[in-house]
Amino acid sequence: MRGERIRIRGTVQGVGFRPHVWRLARSAGITGDICNDNEGVLINAWGDSQALEEFVEEIETRKPPLAVIESVERQPQPNDIDAPGNFSILDSGAGAPLTAVAADAASCHQCLAEARNPRNRRAGYPFTNCTHCGPRYSIIRAIPYDRANTSMAPFAMCTNCLAEYYEPEDRRFHAQPNACPDCGPQLWLEDVDGNAVGELRNADALARAAALIASGHIVAVKGMGGVHLAVDACNAQAVDTLRERKRRYRKPLALMARDIAEVRRYAYLDWTEAKALHSPAAPIVILRRRDAHDDLAPGIAPGQDQLGFMLPYTPLHLELMRHLRGPIVLTSGNLSEEPQCTDNTDARERLAGIADYLLLHDRDIVNRVDDSVVRVTAGHLRTLRRARGFAPGQLALPPGFEGADGVLATGADLKNTFCLLKDGYAILSPHMGDLEDAPTQVDYRRAIALHRQLYAMEPQLLAADMHPDYHSSHYARELAASADLPCAEIQHHHAHIAAVLGEHGLPRDSAPVLGIALDGLGYGDDGGIWGGEFLLADYAQSQRIGRFRPVPMLGGNLAMREPWRCALAHLWSVDDWESLAGRHAALECIAFLREKPLDTLRQVAAKGINSPPSSSAGRLFDAAAALLGLHREEQAYEGEAAMALEAMALRAVDGVEQAYPFELREAQALVEIDWSTVWPALLEDLAAQVPGETIAARFHTTVATAVAELAQRLMLQHQLKTVALSGGVLQNSLLASQLQARLAAQGHRVLMPEQIPCNDGGIALGQALVAWAQQG
Amino acid sequence: MSHGSGGRASAQLIEELFLRHLDNDLLRRGDDSAQFGVPAGRMVMSTDCHVISPLFFPGGDIGALAVHGTLNDVAMSGATPLYLAAGFILEEGFPLADLERIVAGMAAAATAAGVPVVTGDTKVVEKGKGDGVFITTTGIGMVPPGVEIAGDRARPGDAILVSGTIGDHGVAIMSSRENLEFDTTITSDSAALHTLVAQVLGAAPDIHCLRDPTRGGLATTLNELARQSRVGMRIRESGIPVRGAVKSACELLGLDPLYVANEGKLVCICPAPQAAAALAAMRAHPLGGEAAVIGEVVEDPHHFVQMETTFGGQRIVDWLAGEQLPRIC
Ligand SMILES: [Fe+3]
Ligand SMILES: [Mg+2]
Ligand SMILES: [Zn+2]
Ligand SMILES: [Zn+2]
């Protein structure tokens, strides 16, 4: 007989871990106990050596679906403690919580089967869940994660549910949100004046809602992490009405299909993508559209060759979809740019002008969690928006960061997320959104306060972007000043690259890498506006050794909204712009630019009036898109022009391998890619009526070739072996895969963001790592 | 203008120039200080240094601006300005003709405002140690009894008014400095606001805050007031008056008029029931024809100034630490 204390760390609370271990212990003949505490799970176990070994191995290999085991530590029991006669589950110990709050998870197949089974007591019940699935983060108000601290508190369990809850053999043993139609939350349908529709409950309300959607109505659907708006995806008029009312004019709308087969009708799907759709996170997966002339409403994804699909992730959605014959649009319930509604009153107020009916329920959504978005590029799953199903998630930090603790990084301003470092882990918040939007920023501050409480985390060090006027940086400086704490200001692209290093587990003392940030823009070390950067970087330091040649950002932020400004600034970088413009006066894009007040703009550029020089890669793509006539006057959302350019390039049939001329040039202490020779050649192609698709593809080839060439030169010069890429421009799959292929062919180790978004959603992790590493 | 051997001669020249233009009894007396009696009440004093390029611009010059700036700072306490003092720092070699124009501009502004410059001083610095001319003006005034105006008095529920179009001064200065051509010439709004203040106070005696949104524009002023009063503010983009020419210039340059300087506008925060009277009084004044109620004070622990945009969003209008810099990634 031997005794051991087994310490398990990771996502092991609130995921059915203790009953699982209890079952294993009983079948292996192990005695002792298990409890949750502030470090995870602690098991006291006695048995013969052989049985103990098998027991621990079983724990690691046959863990519950939502559990993540980060480490298992074993110590012998002190000799003076005797083995108990059985194995028991102890109540949660007190003390500061440290283990993760689990993310919400899509329904498990057992719960779905029950909800579908007409003879089951939960038949059609929208809130069916168990320890393997259902809400977690979206309902938690405080820790410990007990029902009383969630929005399930008002629902007292009936005898049947209680029996499940206390039965270790049951899938619902200690499932905090456990519920059934008799005791749990209820769903109903109402019109915009607040009148209940037909006293319908749950499955009946869902059936009626489905009928309303099928007849062209807009129905607000309160789900797990927020309120969505649903319309029939094949009803062009309904989709247009939705866009009009929501004031979301062009950004693609997400779709929900009833099953994989339905997704496959509209989009190409490989195994990785299908797996992602079916995963517990059940994100929106961006897929290549099969046929632009399918029966979907034209307003779903104008100008795009892709569709974003998700599958039903709660019995509520499953039941809704069961009554519908095709996919639905399921988009966030809000006015464009605002945070998604979460509560009933708010939904009634804010969605009254958008929805025709509201499908609401009485389980409060405590924490808003948007749908996550992923995309497969070159065989790798890349997360573009980390929210439902992923967040809050903890990431074990690389070697050298074991002691990292007490860091709060406030992220960037757009696609904001924030990050805590706690005991060697990074805790990543869900996607928050644009902090310039007031309700979003209020929610952001609330979420930071909640995370500090959930993880019992008193920040000792703040990390923020170096930008003088990011809202997130203002907030960090305010927090730091009020608590008299240091605030590390981290360069935007250094943070992008550090996040990639952290995600791939590079040890803190690794040799520097070449970090390539292809980005919209970020504030540079030198006060300039950066965005096409080659950094010699490790966690603590970064030095700019290469860049895109800067051109003025004509009109500051406006250059992002109006791509013609980028085209103009880039054309002016051509040595002899006047004669170039004269030669191509007949081109429609040149004629367009000539209509603008060029003399004034020339002054503006020359004197730098609200036109800082910028090396942005995003604006480079905007320039090319504008010349090709894509969203030249104005883009409705960030990246619209670049996405249209990518879509156009993907349709090219030949001549795509030819790159336009570019130059690599020494400029001060760094090497620059000069794009000014691209434009005469591109205009030449336009004049020769080369198809736009070919020009778009050649442009991609040009950027990939130039970046890879400069990378090769810098890698040799600085004797580097690893290259890390990040930045929002990498959301362009075509560019990302071309770059990856070229860099890998040069024999380098290439690191790209996968779980952490390459866009500004990944900044917070990088900030936290850099701030900690710099601290010494 | 020279320095050194010819110093005495030129100093005399300058003195005469000032006297000729700014002439009044107290200044003519030539004492080291001006002596005057004051009515009973609270006295207000404010000082402002003026540096600007260009020195002459559509709608004014540095001399007039130095008068208006200080008079307005005095007037924003609700006070009636009484006297001004002016200090000049001139760079050696600064053309006398330009100086004369500036002093004439100052005199015209002071006369129009009915507030004399009663004392002053001039120093000349070596060439290269100044930038043409710097002017410091100081003003004093008296607050009538019963008037309690301060930056920390905004209360939830109060109305926020602005006395006219915003951004005129900043855009006028920029276009004249940088030689930017726009369809119509944009003129600075440089003006003295104390008579407007008196008129509004007559109609709405319980005004809580007054402030002139100069450098940093309306956005900065509202943030200052929100923070001082520990409240939030909600304004409506559609209600904020902006001249068409200023708007299109800002649209071309990508500037946000909320952050552009004004020199003849004020922000007034008063209890909501007095807002209509205050607005009517502003509109009846020649400098307030385009006055508007732009929003209200709200309770907000974050002290946010938020603006309902024309698209229906709620945008945070924050302080800027520096220039308007792009922040969209
Ligand atoms: Fe970025
Ligand atoms: Mg002052
Ligand atoms: Zn389940
Ligand atoms: Zn029940």
From TrEMBL, chain A:
<dbReference type="Pfam" id="PF22521">
    <property type="entry name" value="HypF_C_2"/>
</dbReference>
<feature type="active site">
    <location>
        <position position="18"/>
    </location>
</feature>
<feature type="domain" description="YrdC-like">
    <location>
        <begin position="203"/>
        <end position="389"/>
    </location>
</feature>
<dbReference type="Pfam" id="PF17788">
    <property type="entry name" value="HypF_C"/>
</dbReference>
<dbReference type="InterPro" id="IPR001792">
    <property type="entry name" value="Acylphosphatase-like_dom"/>
</dbReference>
<feature type="domain" description="Acylphosphatase-like">
    <location>
        <begin position="3"/>
        <end position="91"/>
    </location>
</feature>
<protein>
    <recommendedName>
        <fullName>Carbamoyltransferase HypF</fullName>
        <ecNumber>6.2.-.-</ecNumber>
    </recommendedName>
</protein>
<dbReference type="InterPro" id="IPR011125">
    <property type="entry name" value="Znf_HypF"/>
</dbReference>
<dbReference type="InterPro" id="IPR043129">
    <property type="entry name" value="ATPase_NBD"/>
</dbReference>
<keyword id="KW-0862">Zinc</keyword>
<dbReference type="InterPro" id="IPR004421">
    <property type="entry name" value="Carbamoyltransferase_HypF"/>
</dbReference>
<dbReference type="GO" id="GO:0003725">
    <property type="term" value="F:double-stranded RNA binding"/>
</dbReference>
<dbReference type="InterPro" id="IPR017968">
    <property type="entry name" value="Acylphosphatase_CS"/>
</dbReference>
<dbReference type="InterPro" id="IPR036046">
    <property type="entry name" value="Acylphosphatase-like_dom_sf"/>
</dbReference>
<dbReference type="Pfam" id="PF07503">
    <property type="entry name" value="zf-HYPF"/>
</dbReference>
<dbReference type="GO" id="GO:0003998">
    <property type="term" value="F:acylphosphatase activity"/>
</dbReference>
<comment type="function">
    <text>Involved in the maturation of [NiFe] hydrogenases. Along with HypE, it catalyzes the synthesis of the CN ligands of the active site iron of [NiFe]-hydrogenases. HypF functions as a carbamoyl transferase using carbamoylphosphate as a substrate and transferring the carboxamido moiety in an ATP-dependent reaction to the thiolate of the C-terminal cysteine of HypE yielding a protein-S-carboxamide.</text>
</comment>
<dbReference type="GO" id="GO:0016874">
    <property type="term" value="F:ligase activity"/>
</dbReference>
<keyword id="KW-0378">Hydrolase</keyword>
<dbReference type="Pfam" id="PF01300">
    <property type="entry name" value="Sua5_yciO_yrdC"/>
</dbReference>
<keyword id="KW-0808">Transferase</keyword>
<dbReference type="InterPro" id="IPR041440">
    <property type="entry name" value="HypF_C"/>
</dbReference>
<keyword id="KW-0863">Zinc-finger</keyword>
<dbReference type="GO" id="GO:0016743">
    <property type="term" value="F:carboxyl- or carbamoyltransferase activity"/>
</dbReference>
<comment type="similarity">
    <text>Belongs to the carbamoyltransferase HypF family.</text>
</comment>
<keyword id="KW-0479">Metal-binding</keyword>
<dbReference type="InterPro" id="IPR051060">
    <property type="entry name" value="Carbamoyltrans_HypF-like"/>
</dbReference>
<feature type="active site">
    <location>
        <position position="36"/>
    </location>
</feature>
<dbReference type="InterPro" id="IPR006070">
    <property type="entry name" value="Sua5-like_dom"/>
</dbReference>
<dbReference type="InterPro" id="IPR017945">
    <property type="entry name" value="DHBP_synth_RibB-like_a/b_dom"/>
</dbReference>
<keyword id="KW-0436">Ligase</keyword>
<comment type="pathway">
    <text>Protein modification; [NiFe] hydrogenase maturation.</text>
</comment>
<dbReference type="InterPro" id="IPR055128">
    <property type="entry name" value="HypF_C_2"/>
</dbReference>
<dbReference type="GO" id="GO:0008270">
    <property type="term" value="F:zinc ion binding"/>
</dbReference>
<dbReference type="GO" id="GO:0051604">
    <property type="term" value="P:protein maturation"/>
</dbReference>
<dbReference type="Pfam" id="PF00708">
    <property type="entry name" value="Acylphosphatase"/>
</dbReference>
